[in-house]
Amino acid sequence: MSSSFLLKNIEINIYINIILPVVLYGCETWSLTFRKKRRLRVFENRELMRTFGPMRDEVTGEWRKLRKEELYDMYSSPSSIPVIKSRRMRWAEHVASMMEERGEAYTDRVLVGKPGGKRKLGKTRRRWKDNIKMNLQEVGWGIDWIHLAQDRDRWRAFVNAVMNLWLP
After folding, report:
1. Where are the domains of the chain?
2. What is the pLDDT of residue 7?
């Protein structure tokens, strides 16, 4: 990726098709905390900075680092956080459809399962279903997502609407 012989569009294709899938493997089940979001953004910015490199300022003629906004304009693809949220919503549909097939006892263990380990003082650990509820509240839907997800047509329309809101 740091070779000067590779064209920028080839480096971007390598990043999108090889690096991002490895980084985002299994992201549907992640419980994104503020720290994890920040670490993903730092990784993404570092890779984009490495890809596009410094830029010569037109006014002063000096080399400078690109700003985040300039990087995102040049990259023109969504950041990893909206991609994770949209994948999580599609996975929620799959979990809700499993509820119909396997019964509530099975999926209740998945949805209400307790995170392992000893809880620290302060807030409780964020569960996967808490992330789903937060994503729905971001969009303005405060309804029972399990019943909505069992109706495939409505859920797909909802997920497409949500993806359009998150993606630039």
Report:
1. 8-77, 81-166
2. 82
